[in-house]
Design a protein that fits this description.
The chain contains seven helices and no strands. It has 169 residues and is mainly α. It has a domain of 74 residues. The termini are far apart.
Length: 169
């Protein structure tokens, strides 16, 4: 990867001033990264390195509560984690938000009215019941004869041998 030029202090201050206008007190870092994803990627894919962007963020006061200055590795890692879709949200491609894009109106899904069954309908009084499906024909177990019962009782002795005599205690 080619080394990018180091921006001057004036350029870092100008970028920090731009970040200050985008940051509101109390914003949370990862949603802020998601919101300004395209702008940050545009900077990094252009002349800016992650380290330089981190310097501008630190200078603008955009840090975690610890106030620890951003490093290139830490900023890139945290930015990448912010791009992972949140649990419970659709994993499809979401439209990216541009800093200079016009204001968009959120789309609210249409609500469906519940289907009301008339009171006279049999479904209105009880839920349908279903038996588990089976392709086997269910048969009753056969009645065992005395000879069959004796054979069943003799089988453990044939398999495991005769029982050992118990020692007197």
């Amino acid at each position: 990867m080619p080394k990018k030029r180091t921006p001057t202090d004036e350029e870092i201050e100008a970028l920090a001033e731009h970040f200050r206008h985008l940051w509101r007190q109390g914003d949370v870092m990862r949603p802020w990264f998601r919101q300004h994803r395209d702008m940050l990627l545009g900077l990094v894919h252009g002349d800016w390195s992650w380290a330089s962007v981190g310097q501008a963020l630190t200078k603008a006061g955009i840090t975690y509560r610890t106030g620890k200055p951003w490093t290139a590795k830490w900023l890139q890692s945290d930015f990448s984690r912010a791009q992972i879709p949140l649990k419970g949200y659709r994993r499809g491609k979401q439209p990216s938000q541009d800093v200079y894009a016009s204001e968009t109106v959120p789309v609210v899904p249409a609500l469906r009215a519940p289907v009301v069954q008339p009171a006279s309908s049999p479904r209105a009084t009880s839920a349908p019941r279903f038996k588990p499906a089976s392709f086997r024909i269910q048969e009753l177990p056969p009645e065992l004869s005395e000879a069959d019962r004796a054979e069943i009782e003799r089988n453990p002795g044939l398999t495991f041998g005769p029982p050992e005599p118990k020692e007197p205690s």
